[in-house]
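Justification of resources, computational component.

The compute hours requested in this renewal are based largely on the per-chain cost of generating structure records like the one below. Each record pairs the submitted sequence with a full structure-token output. That output is archived, and it is also reused by downstream analysis tasks.
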Amino acid sequence: MNSKIIDKLGLITLRDRKVAMVRSHNKTLFYIPGGKRELNETDEQALCRELDEELTLTLHLDSIRFYGEFIGLADGKQDGTQVRIRCYFADYDGSPIPAAEIAELAWLDSHDLPLCSTTAAIIVSQLQQDGLIN
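The structure output for this chain reads:
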């Protein structure tokens, strides 16, 4: 069994009892915005860089707070590879605008689970259980 784990960071952004999700070009499923850490980056540094690249958002470093860690099957991997996403809340300047590899931004809730990657669906379900989204 393959025990490969992709380590990622994600930003939980809530509005009107929905969570911001993104979809990459050439992908069909949505996921939490964020990405992989670069060498020697802290979670906060990677999150700030990725959100600037993907959604042109400038995060307020002192507002970043941990929400939870989620593990699920990696989207598009047939070998059992899993993804581990450490999710955070943060305040930011600007409005999220898809950039770089992001084709679409959508505000989703628990009724949209079929549109989400495996791990994103786990996160959406937890947000709903915690009473943060519908």
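The chain has a mean pLDDT of 93. The radius of gyration is 14 Å.
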